[in-house]
Write a structure and sequence with these properties.
The structure holds 2 protein chains of 2 kinds. Chain A is of the alpha+beta class. Helices cover 33% and strands 24% of the residues of chain A. In chain A, β4, α4 and β5 form a beta-alpha-beta unit. In chain A, α4 packs antiparallel against α5, α7 packs across α8 and α12 packs antiparallel against α13. Chain A is globular. Chain B folds into 2 domains: 79 residues, Glycoprotein, Type 4 Pilin; 69 residues, RNA polymerase II/Efflux pump adaptor protein, barrel-sandwich hybrid domain (OB fold (Dihydrolipoamide Acetyltransferase, E2P), Beta Barrel). Helix content of chain B is 7%, strand content 54%. An 8-stranded antiparallel barrel of chain B has the order 1-2-3-4-5-6-7-8. Classes of the chains: A alpha+beta, B mainly beta. The interface between A and B is large, with 53 and 50 residues.
Chain lengths: 504, 161
């Protein structure tokens, strides 16, 4: 048994996830080392850690993505392990290998597994080999229109014609019935040829209006393979998740068991280690629903607190234990799903301006505190939200005994989440939560892309209440209002501040 | 203390907000009188005497931000009193009685040129003689009182251009 305690951990990340990991370190008696770029010197993660090391200028390529600098920081502070968080270098096998070569434990799977599951084709092959359903599809060796048509009929319409050589939607054609095939094949081939220099087409069953349902998994150093049930992430905008929940409103107990078993068998078959997530597309609902392997994320997910809320486990703690060579803290039989949890991602973005990311000083930042609410955040009042990084400000996770309770709690907490200085998506989140289709659980991955415009316009049409107009003059009142709010000290002096007071 | 009036604008929504001498706030002349109380930092309580709500306020008058019940608004706040004062200065100044009393002497006639500090009218109140002086150079536009009149505070005595 390769057992070694972690005494000092470098967190190769920033923001809320760095704060989350530092907290786990503190609980476990592990010293935490934060790294920070020039604009993050005062950021909460840098202030909270036991040790903080400057890592370079603001652009991520020169700081949070600079493998050499991170390894140097780990060595100079005598860290015995590195946690990559999510994003940045979390799924970069070169970074995992560099840690290993420097004699530092990488908290995550070994580099070979990051590579295996990071390649779409290799991951798909591995999933199929483990008996997981994948979206039916094939690359016909004979690329004539007639042969492609035959394949399309076998796969079953609607089909997607994709460039075998590339991705990013280039050369992709959706064909809903066989009559339009000939024309679509020619067009897709031309596009594939011009975009990738290779006109070879891959024919795949189109899953229309699918749900995004992922299974949290964990692999142990001693051959353990468990799943921690699902998260439904169907509420996404342009492939960016906005609201995640567990359990999925679309899963029956039987389907949940089948998907969980499938995910655990993939973990077992590839010998996966540490935390991971297996993403599926779900077609239909109920026992009849079909699921297809989509891809695997070889890291901790943003939305991991949803799973923590319904299973009662601590995934970061488990990651650190596994990395230290210990047994996983739970067996499959010990894991149960209880109640319901919903996570809302609070982004610095303006829904009324096409969800444009916002930057600026947080004049007011007040987190709600109430039963069933957990907030993971990496910002503070008076702090600056910069343009350099992800616009995620905080994750609000509400849990309750039922989905309805969790929704009610989410709404109550968001109404009390006061953020001023920059625009956020809080009003938009409230509109989504109030929408009857979300309430009914009747959503798919295109839901927000189709409905976001309508939701934004509906709430914008409402004028501010009189109370808001009345409060707007509060600061012009004068000596009575001794306080202009924290963080406003550097703002231009209020020209009305000399008027007489009226506060009572 | 005199009431204060503000124009508060949010996109196409504009309201006149008045703050009276007791600090009570009315919006567009509504019957609902709102009290705004500062709590902690950016936090305020707005109450109509029965229902109360928490709001958060920050930022300068031309970009005043208010968070209320999950929604955030950006307002532009301007003082209408300020504008009116400026505008009236260019036109006629209404000279009013500073306190209740009797007009004992009218020293000017309409059209008469006066200089700043000249005595225009003498009032008598509480056994004291009170001169009303020209606040600036100009000419007398109109006279609204006669010797012997009893006047209330704020009553218009004469107009000066």
């Amino acid at each position: 048994m390769n057992r070694m305690a972690i005494r000092r951990l470098l967190i190769a990340n920033r923001g809320e996830i760095a704060v989350r990991i530092i907290r786990a370190c503190r609980e476990m008696g592990i010293e935490s080392v934060a790294v920070y770029s020039d604009v993050d010197a005062e950021a909460p993660h840098a202030r909270l850690a036991d040790i903080a090391v400057p890592i370079g200028p603001a652009p991520a390529l020169e700081s949070y993505l600079a493998i050499g600098r991170l390894i140097d920081a780990a060595k100079s502070t005598a860290c015995d392990a590195v946690h990559p968080g999510y994003g940045f270098l979390a799924e970069n096998s070169a970074f995992a290998a560099a840690c290993r070569d420097a004699g530092v434990t990488f908290v995550g799977p070994p580099p070979a597994l990051i590579d295996l599951m990071g390649s779409k084709t290799a991951a798909r092959d591995a999933a199929r080999a483990a008996g997981l359903p994948v979206v039916p599809g094939a690359t016909p060796p004979d690329q004539s229109n007639a042969a492609i048509e035959r394949t399309a009929r076998q796969v079953g319409c609607p089909v997607l014609l994709k460039a075998a050589a590339g991705g990013g939607g280039k050369g992709m054609r959706l064909v809903s019935d066989a009559n339009g095939l000939d024309e679509a094949i020619d067009a897709a081939r031309r596009e594939a040829q011009s975009a990738f220099g290779d006109g070879t087409l891959y024919i795949e069953r189109a899953i229309e209006r699918p749900r995004h349902v992922e299974i949290q998994v964990f692999g142990g150093a001693h051959g353990q393979a468990v799943h921690l049930f699902e998260r439904d992430c169907s509420v996404q905008r342009r492939h960016q998740k906005v609201i995640e929940e567990s359990p999925s409103p679309a899963l029956t107990p039987a389907l949940r068991a089948r998907m969980g078993d499938a995910a655990a068998s993939l973990v077992r078959s590839v010998g996966y280690r540490n935390a991971g997530t297996i993403e599926f597309l779900l077609e239909g609902a109920g026992d009849e629903a079909r699921f297809y392997f989509l891809e695997m994320n070889t890291r901790l997910q943003v939305e991991h607190p949803v799973t923590e809320a319904v299973t009662g486990v601590d995934l970061v703690r488990a990651q650190l234990l596994e990395a230290a060579g210990e047994m996983l803290p739970w067996t499959q039989a010990q894991l149960t799903l209880r109640g319901h949890a919903i996570e809302c991602r609070v982004y610095a973005e303006d829904p009324a301006a096409g969800f444009m990311p916002q930057a600026g000083r947080l004049l007011c930042y007040r987190e709600p505190a109430m039963p069933g609410i957990r907030i993971d955040s990496g910002v503070a009042q008076g702090g600056e939200v910069s343009v350099y990084y992800d616009p995620l400000l905080a994750k609000l996770v509400a849990s309750g005994e039922t989905r309805a309770v969790a929704i009610d709690r989410t709404i109550a907490a968001l109404r009390d989440f006061a953020i001023l200085g920059i625009r956020t998506n809080i009003p938009f989140l409230l509109d989504v939560l109030a929408d009857s289709r979300f309430r009914d659980g009747d959503i798919h991955t295109r839901f927000l892309d189709e409905e976001a415009g309508r939701l934004v316009e509906t709430s914008r049409a409402l004028p501010p209440p009189d109370e808001a107009f009345a409060a707007a003059v509060a600061l012009v009142a004068g000596p009575g209002t001794r306080d202009q709010g924290p963080g406003t000290k550097d703002l231009p002096r209020d020209p009305w501040a000399t008027l007489n007071g009226w506060r009572n | 203390m005199v009431p204060k009036r503000f124009t508060v604008r949010e996109r196409t929504n504009s309201r006149t907000v008045e703050v009276d001498a007791n600090g009570q706030v009315t919006v567009d002349g509504s019957d609902r009188r709102l009290a705004v109380t500062g709590l902690d930092g950016a936090e305020y309580e707005v109450s109509d005497g029965l229902r109360r709500c928490r709001v958060f306020v920050a930022g300068p008058p031309d970009a005043r931000e208010v968070f209320i019940d999950g929604r955030a608004f950006r307002f532009e706040v301007t003082s209408t009193d300020h504008r009116r004062l400026k505008r009236s200065a260019a036109h006629a100044d209404a000279m009013t009685a500073p306190m209740p009393g009797t007009v004992v002497k009218v020293l000017v006639e309409p059209g008469q040129q006066v200089r700043r500090g000249d005595i225009l009218i003498k009032l008598e109140a509480m056994k004291m003689e009170l001169p009303v002086r020209a606040p600036h150079d100009g000419s007398v536009k109109a006279i609204h009182c006669r010797e012997g009149d009893l006047v209330q505070a704020g009553m218009r005595l004469l107009d000066l251009s």
